[in-house]
Specification:
The complex is a heterodimer of chains A (315) and B (122). In chain A, 68% of the residues lie in helices and 2% in strands. Chain A has 315 residues and is mainly α. In chain A, strands 1-2 form a two-stranded antiparallel sheet. The longest helix of chain A has 29 residues, at 145-173. Mean pLDDT of chain A is 94; it is low at 204-208. Chain B is an alpha+beta fold and 122 residues long. Chain B has a domain at 28-108: Phenylacetic acid degradation B (Ubiquitin-like (UB roll)), CATH 3.10.20.520. Helix content of chain B is 13%, strand content 17%. Chain B is built from two helices and three strands. In chain B, strands 2-1-3 form a three-stranded antiparallel beta sheet, with helices on one face. Classes of the chains: A mainly alpha (315), B alpha+beta (122). At the A-B interface, helix 2, helix 4, helix 5, helix 6 and helix 7 of A face strand 2 and helix 1 of B.
């Protein structure tokens, strides 16, 4: 069968909402796009543990500490589901991880911002996880089976993340003047980076977008960003906080909130590696990898020894 | 004039736009742990169902990792793991011909039989 015929069959399946599975024929560009996107997503989960990990030992109570530990452990799990999905596309795990450590692969820029106060943990849960969930809910219907299944599991777990973040802020927003100020300050710092998570503006593309045709994605950046703003503005009222955007106001004609322009210079700066914590995050990952080498070696040696002992018992 | 604009998505920043931090680091090869497929029985009376895969040095470690990764919220009461290399699969490209023998045997289905309305409990 010619490539054109195979592509036609492939696109036919996608159009009929039939999931693509690992052993099915797929265009090379589809495979490549998926490997890039899913691995960036996996790296985001893993690097995303770092800003929060910063507060595990400083959490204000044992309850908060246990919750934060559980959340960070979930993120590790999410990274693993996604690395496994990349493996089904034929890219070995060490290759994927090496690409992160060498700086070749990217992760979400949001994790290159520092967590300065406890309220940041609340703001991450509410805003950052809130933004991620909108993407992830959409991705539950993505055309590649293993990716979609991983996203379904992730979405189930993310809901707790967002709720615990909102609850942290809710408690602070009812606290002392210092606590209220801390809550507002965290929201001021995380608002714009959260909007940036949806990526550049759609622009006036006259070409049909490949990721949409392949149904890897089903909503554009701007659609998701608008959805996020509309949702958060309402929730902010419950917290009795302001969002740091003077242009933010209800547009009755559109039925949506209007909002100000994102600082795109900052956006591209952080993407290109010049954010507040880019260097620190990658170094932390490399250090963890290098210092964990003996654990991996020991586990392999122990498995070998155990296998040898079992073989001896059988003989 | 048609202007081609590239759209980017969360988790989809193209490589050519990723500057800083790029350098070569040597990552020592992973100890070469095999890949395992994980099957979980969610409750007594149900089949084990494939839930995903993971890497582990041996079967015991695979089961322990599967517990940590796939049953953090009481999703299972029994775990099977099998090394991925031991799984043999039918070829999706041959699916048409492979399952063809079943297509013309409609008499295997109960609805094939034309029976009188007054016949009950059958």
């Amino acid at each position: 069968m010619s490539v054109q015929e195979l592509e036609k069959i492939f696109q036919g399946k996608v159009d009929q909402e039939i999931k693509i599975e690992p052993k099915d024929w797929m265009p090379d560009a589809y495979r490549k796009t998926l490997v890039r996107q899913i691995s960036q997503h996996a790296h985001s989960e893993i690097v995303g543990m770092l800003p929060e990990g910063n507060w595990i030992s400083r959490a204000p109570s044992l309850k908060r500490k246990a919750i934060l530990l559980a959340k960070v452990q979930d993120e590790a799990g999410h990274g693993l589901y996604l690395y496994s999905a990349v493996e089904t596309l034929g890219t070995p795990r060490n290759q994927t991880i090496e690409d992160l450590h060498s700086g070749k692969a990217k992760y979400s820029s949001i994790f290159n911002y520092p967590t300065l106060t406890w309220a940041d943990i609340g703001a991450i849960g509410w805003l950052v996880d809130g933004a991620a969930i909108l993407n992830q809910v959409m991705l539950c219907r993505t055309s590649y089976g293993p990716y979609a299944r991983a996203m379904v599991r992730i979405c189930k777990e993310e809901s707790f993340h967002q709720r615990q973040g909102f609850e942290i802020l809710l408690v602070l927003s009812k606290g002392t003047p210092e606590q209220k100020a801390m809550c507002q300050d965290a929201i001021n710092r995380w608002w714009w980076p959260s909007l940036m998570m949806f990526g550049p503006k759609d622009g006036e593309s006259t070409h049909s977008d490949q990721s949409m045709t392949w149904k890897i994605k089903r909503k554009s950046n701007d659609e998701l960003r608008q959805q996020f703003v509309d949702m958060i503005v309402e929730q902010a009222k419950i917290l009795n906080v302001t969002l740091p955007d003077p242009a933010l106001q209800w547009n009755a004609a559109k039925g949506h909130y209007d909002f100000g322009e994102i600082d795109w210079v900052e956006f591209w700066n952080v993407v290109k590696g010049n954010g507040p914590c880019n260097k620190e995050r990658l170094e932390a990952r490399r250090k963890a990898w290098d210092e964990g080498a003996w654990v991996r070696d020991a586990a392999a040696a122990f498995a070998e020894k155990r296998a040898a002992r079992q073989a001896q018992q059988v003989a | 004039m048609n202007i081609r604009l590239t759209k980017y998505y969360y988790g989809d920043i193209p490589e050519e736009n990723t500057g800083g931090g790029a350098g070569t680091v040597t990552v020592k090869d992973v100890a070469g742990w095999p890949l395992w497929e994980v099957f979980i029985r969610s409750k007594q009376g149900l089949d084990h169902k494939h839930v995903g895969s993971l890497q582990a040095a041996d079967a015991q470690m695979a089961i322990e990792n599967a517990r940590d990764v796939y049953t953090r919220r009481s999703e299972g009461i029994s775990i099977w793991v099998v090394e991925s290399k031991h799984i043999h699969a039918s070829n999706p490209d041959d699916a048409g011909a492979f399952y063809e023998p079943a297509n013309d045997k409609v008499y295997r289905h109960p609805t094939f039989y034309d029976l009188p309305e007054e016949l009950k409990h059958m």
